[in-house]
Amino acid sequence: MSTVYNWQLGREMEYPYDATYPNEQFAFVFNINRCIACQTCTMACKSTWTFSKGQEYMWWNNVETKPYGGYPHHWDVKLLDLLEKANPEGQIWNDQPLEKRAPYGRFGGKTVFDAAQQNLAPEGAQAALGYLPTDEEWSGPNKFEDNPLSEIKGKRGQFFPGGEQLPNHKTWFFYLQRLCNHCTYPACLAACPRKAIYKRREDGIVLIDQERCRGYRKCVEACPYKKPMYRGATRTSEKCIGCYPRIEGREPDTGGVPTQTRCMAGCIGQIRLQGLIELNPDGVWKENRANPLYYLVHVAKVALPLYPQFGTSPNGYYIPPRWVPRPYLRQMFGPGVDAAIERYTVPDRELLAVLQLFGKDERICARYEIQKGPKVFETTVRGKPFELYNDTIIGYSRKGQEIVRVTVEEPVHIRPDQHANSI
Prior knowledge:
The protein is of the alpha+beta class. The chain is 18% helix and 20% strand.
């Protein structure tokens, strides 16, 4: 085992391999508040990558309903339970942020790599604590969809009074969008006995070498997010490949400009933003104030990693849903939840502008700038003053070409009376 630094945990941790980092890291942000679970992203991925024999149950991208849903069923609850048994009442945070090297404070519990050291199998040590889902758990990817958690149980058709009130709904659910996080410290890579899994040096995308893989399913067992999947038809494991030809700029229509993945580009709710992040030698994000992902994660701090306590340093980030009880969200996204929701609920001028970049163009935005516009509205939100400025945000590709220009206040088009009922 080697010692590596995990900035999401605010401390060093054990990992089977020495720390090496790509030149840039593939990363993305999801705004949960906007998702309507239309599953367009899911079908965009399915129709592109997993439509062949043996891939029927593979959903590299999926949208699941929390708190009950999951694919495979209850993947996160099972992992959290395993970690709690490995470290009873010890999975806690010291949430004293230390800027970029520890923005969420310090996690004092055990990661999946730490816990694996005390759970030695007879044939040797497993690299990461995990489990193999059953066939039943891989069935029904939409099981429990739209199932809410309510204070009224067993009374069909009855609604809880005040259940719609903010900041916390008393009856609630939300949609969680998931794909491979292309982790900085992948558990799948750590566990593979064939060394068939690797991170691409150019963008940090995690891939499985199909010629080296022998289908031992150690990656499936070790990944806490359960995103590698075994294909019986070929007896190998497969996973999300980050649509790397698009990331490389090989999409014919974009002139060599890196393009967002199929699931990101297909999102009709405009909840997704994807990009490439430069890293420092220690794996911490290099400061780049004009990169929209850097701004959302390290400046505005509204986007948080999914289950950072697992220790894999996932590169998928989420703007938490503002109506969900805070203890549930803190367990899922760490101690930065309260501040993130507060900033998102009453966004400042820059944050409101950057949020307009989501889903506006399929090309990856490497840099943005804001042209200030007039004040068009002011009010108070939950006792705090809020001002709306009709600023223009401009996004640029890594080659410096303008790829998107949008105003904060979206234009309203009124159909003329003579065409009111026409298509």
